[in-house]
Write a structure and sequence with these properties.
three-stranded parallel sheet; 92 residues; alpha/beta; 3 strands
Amino acid sequence: MSKIKLSIIIPGYDEEKIIINTITSVEKTLFSLKKAFEILIVDDGSKDATPNLLQELVKSKKHPNLRFVSYKDGPSRRENLAKSFKLLKGEY
């Protein structure tokens, strides 16, 4: 894909049961737009297997537009999301 046009940021906390379906659904919609995109999942100190699952998904390269960042001891969800917006590469 060319230069990233769309950036999607998804907050996550203890999402291990639904995160794969969420990613798949969002990807399906974004692929239909035929624009280069990225998805950034912001894990905010999940106590379940969400961070491990996301790490494995990124490593597998089955979702090449997926990235994630995990904050274990961040000040707040709002502040962690605000920090994460600076990591986005998309035009929109």
